[in-house]
Amino acid sequence: MRRYKVAILGATGMVGQHYIKMLKDHPWFKISGLTGKESVGKKYVEAVRGEAPPPPPDIADMEVLPNDPKHVDADFVFSCLPTEPARESEPLFAQAGFPVFSDASAYRMEPDIPLIVPEINPDHLGLIEVQRKNRGWDGYIVTTPNCTTVGLVLPLHPLWKALGLNRVVVTTMQAVSGAGYPGVASLSILGNVIPYISGEEHKVETETRKILGRLENGAIRYDKTYVLATCTRVPTLDGHMESILAETGRPATAEEVVNLLEEYVSLPQELNLPTAPRRPILVRREPDRPQTRIDVDAGSIQGMAVSVGRIRVDGNNVRMISLSHNLIRGAAGGTILTAELAAYQGLLD
Amino acid sequence: MRRYKVAILGATGMVGQHYIKMLKDHPWFKISGLTGKESVGKKYVEAVRGEAPPPPPDIADMEVLPNDPKHVDADFVFSCLPTEPARESEPLFAQAGFPVFSDASAYRMEPDIPLIVPEINPDHLGLIEVQRKNRGWDGYIVTTPNCTTVGLVLPLHPLWKALGLNRVVVTTMQAVSGAGYPGVASLSILGNVIPYISGEEHKVETETRKILGRLENGAIRYDKTYVLATCTRVPTLDGHMESILAETGRPATAEEVVNLLEEYVSLPQELNLPTAPRRPILVRREPDRPQTRIDVDAGSIQGMAVSVGRIRVDGNNVRMISLSHNLIRGAAGGTILTAELAAYQGLLD
Amino acid sequence: MRRYKVAILGATGMVGQHYIKMLKDHPWFKISGLTGKESVGKKYVEAVRGEAPPPPPDIADMEVLPNDPKHVDADFVFSCLPTEPARESEPLFAQAGFPVFSDASAYRMEPDIPLIVPEINPDHLGLIEVQRKNRGWDGYIVTTPNCTTVGLVLPLHPLWKALGLNRVVVTTMQAVSGAGYPGVASLSILGNVIPYISGEEHKVETETRKILGRLENGAIRYDKTYVLATCTRVPTLDGHMESILAETGRPATAEEVVNLLEEYVSLPQELNLPTAPRRPILVRREPDRPQTRIDVDAGSIQGMAVSVGRIRVDGNNVRMISLSHNLIRGAAGGTILTAELAAYQGLLD
Amino acid sequence: MRRYKVAILGATGMVGQHYIKMLKDHPWFKISGLTGKESVGKKYVEAVRGEAPPPPPDIADMEVLPNDPKHVDADFVFSCLPTEPARESEPLFAQAGFPVFSDASAYRMEPDIPLIVPEINPDHLGLIEVQRKNRGWDGYIVTTPNCTTVGLVLPLHPLWKALGLNRVVVTTMQAVSGAGYPGVASLSILGNVIPYISGEEHKVETETRKILGRLENGAIRYDKTYVLATCTRVPTLDGHMESILAETGRPATAEEVVNLLEEYVSLPQELNLPTAPRRPILVRREPDRPQTRIDVDAGSIQGMAVSVGRIRVDGNNVRMISLSHNLIRGAAGGTILTAELAAYQGLLD
Prior knowledge:
Four copies of one chain form a homotetramer. The first copy, chain A, has helices at 14-23, 44-47, 57-60, 83-95, 127-135, 147-163, 186-189, 200-211, 254-262, 267-270, 292-295, 328-344; strands at 4-9, 29-34, 76-79, 99-102, 140-143, 165-174, 214-216, 219-221, 226-233, 240-248, 281-283, 306-314, 317-324. Chain A has 349 residues and is an alpha/beta fold. In chain A, helix 1 packs across helix 12 and helix 6 (147-163) runs parallel beside helix 8. Chain A starts with a strand and ends in a 5-residue tail after the last helix. Chains in contact: A-B, A-C, A-D, B-C, B-D, C-D.
């Protein structure tokens, strides 16, 4: 595989720092540029909050660039911009010829823009062609889902394939890092649960159906599964826990569900992509796992596996707890894996 | 109403301290004795952990009695004993002629022992007669539900009555005080969620159906509602939050559900019992309420109302968030209210 | 005592809400106006964050006024403005004839502006005359100290009087509410200690010396005590804990120190001012008290007493732990008490 | 260097798990046995709480041995037993010929038992000879200090050497893992600070003086530095923060103190011992560092460096904040480093 130069748009935020950490020794991708906003012209190390582990020296000294295709020298870009800047900038980069891999929500639900979980719907990358034609772009935009959607849809996928899926009821317990920095005020969340995250439930409910949908005649036919989500914020740092009830198309046993989850591998594993965990789903058999603080970094690639436990099955009703790292599998890591898939398929050349 | 002397079994624990606080100026009940275990013979004030607000002086100086009917002078007793001591002692007190009002789980599911939420099933006190006959007791045992059950079944009751109820899916986020003291280790829960509480889900699922059941021919016919519960522990101090999906018998609108909850009053309110909150359910209309730390003490009698918010209705699917004080409405307060009902009905005389 | 009309400048913040709560049934002071900034023209209840208990109905419906003397009808004002707005507005109010009682830091260290802890230096109100003459104001400004200074200087005062004081070493563990809302990000403080609060140590070190200073010839001669402060932020909600080493002028015994603290009363107690706690200092004898969450509301007027414990004395070295409510004794309550003292002395007429 | 077999006494606790993690790839030491109490006869992996990362497979399957020299095959032992079991067992192992390296407190203050911080007082290992003669043991006991002492005495050492030291005032903010498992109840510490840890202050005050003492004629002459400690518990997981005032023998400047700390290396660094961090003290120049959660794992060997920041110097008064990992530098890691020093000196042969 040749090496690709990649720029990170919005690199000074929390997700940006995770991109840098994960790309440090990446065999295919090499960071060639970092963009920011208030910090343009500063050294990267001075532009980020000091709490994260310091960036590698070559990255630390990079100058933060403006968020503008003219200033960026790269084969493709990752975007972890906030919604509104993403809405504005990503099309400019796509128009200027860059493949854009974005975890921003701005374009996820556009009909001609793929929303990818590499294990589930790699074929949706086929939308790129449609998108380029529609929009007359040399580049393109590929999106990855909301962090909470990922922790839901990954464990649903093997059940959906093997048993069918009618309805999903999910209640989440999400970490404060999901709201970025400064995000949630300590006065609001210390010793508290806030049963509301603006816009989150709608994202989980609709993104899930797009990801599980079918690409037909250049468009995604949404999956029919009815998703009822309730999203809450709890005083944890990283890791979104989800209490899931999946109503499957046919009855199953707990053993069957455990096997389906545990044996689940997919294209990224078969291709042995650099950021693909050996197993995307780790089944925990202890009665009280997964736990947020303890299991957040699970996976042969840290933070890339979803831990699933407390599997309880009664006929068509499958209950389980999932836990995933909202900044890694749910953001930087998931998007890097998507770009690896695209690289493999020649979509970066 | 005459005044009744009441002894508290297991008075030195966390729930015991809430009984004492709530009975301080009670118009009908006066504390005449406190029992304990390791602390027998000590002054009460020396037997309890010093963190709670100090007990009133007359209570502070009471000698802790052994947990034995021979040492207790009272018209009836409250029991907040742990399960095993409750299993052993409560029948001895009932046999010795005491009405026992217990929030322990030991006898909740016995066919001839009532499990009471005063707003929902006051008529189940009719089991007392059956119980006395069966067991040859002069006294009797009346139980109140698990703290998590109360926060679920109270908001379900008006929906169940008006719309019918087929199925309930609930995920709870429970405070550490629900596990007593010392209970949950700080190392286990700081910055963490533990998605498991031993035995809790089964209690919630079965108690709900007994409470909503019908008393027929001296026995409770369980309600047919299918309850699927997942119980988690979060780093909050007091207050159990519950994310509820109620699948009603007929479709409703959000407005209809709000009205049913908001206008809900029942026998304790009609009788104006001393510990009855003016409204057992408080509907919150803000998008992000109820919250654990902020709403835990809601109610005209502090901690006796269940706060309900985030009401979202789609046909038969009613989603809502409930929050209740696990030590007050879910323990001491709920049991005191039950004893008030019994007093009103002449069952303490 | 006649009743005075008072307006609260900056009433929509956290401290403002505490003023409203404490003035609700105040025998001397009645709220006649509330000022704000972004929320001018709104009803007060819509201008504050919904988390606090709702304000009393007559306050809830008040219209938020601009921060301008022309719009305010009052006998005097409380100011809980942020530093910069306080710097700008307070002199305008004083010039317009209003007595201004402020817990803002803007003017605390001005030579002709009193910095008052009513138990310690009520005579410093004598500076008002100097101030008016200097500045040609009809009104005047009186300030109260930083929340952390109060919890230090109150327990120092009886030792300073009886034993003398050479040096003080203090390390604080301060609650997040001290930084206002949104204040400290949850990502920054969950499971963490931050050993730095901008500007705080200098305030503690200099304010203490001004408060203990002597009013001579129209100026304050600062006390000579050398104060070495280290201020940290910990994940608690309300209540600043301080670990104090006081090096006294002569050796003492623990018993002597306990007695000095426990018997300490001063002018506000003698005058029986409405917000004066019966005892400004509560000595805790348990080995592990005071504790932040448990003792924060101590005092016959809730939150107005400083709890002091862990008194350990070795010759001239007196170690102790103090705990005070940063928003009550350290802000709203301390300033109300100061205004009560001024009212008593005819300074509001 | 030859390879030594080592057994870990009390291996199933939290510190034991850190020993196993740190010894996993150790070049000199190989685990040959693990002892426990209730879990004797079980596999190690079944004897420990499941929250820690799973032990390496060869360790996981080891059978937990009784805490008895007859059952242990090793060249020396590490002891992380609780105080009372340590008091009983360690002499039996020493008598049976084992060198015992212990982080238990039982024998730390015995006159003929060394209390070692390898950077500070490696020469105190000279006491071993005295000890063996006194007690007629083939083996010996070497102890390492309380976790809080280490984070104090390490940054004091370069100041003590270069400037002299008269007095130290320290207030600590200690993590809950310092109390072991289950240790501090979540109900006690959530949103709270507890200003008391039983016995801790005395340990810090006396151990510091022994460690800085001089070995003369087969005995330690304690250093004369007067230490005044106040120890508190805060809601953090790992890492003890200490707010230190060091009163030095001669005045210094901040720059001088920074240099002394930053350039500090000692025998373990010179010998390049496997667990010696390249720099035992890391100076942080940011205004708000070190922070507990962020800096706890500092060091070229993770958790073995003490981070020091907020250095403020006024004449003889040096203020600073230190942060150290209580389970690594303050327990397992410090003791392993001590054993490496002993191995280097031939004391394990």
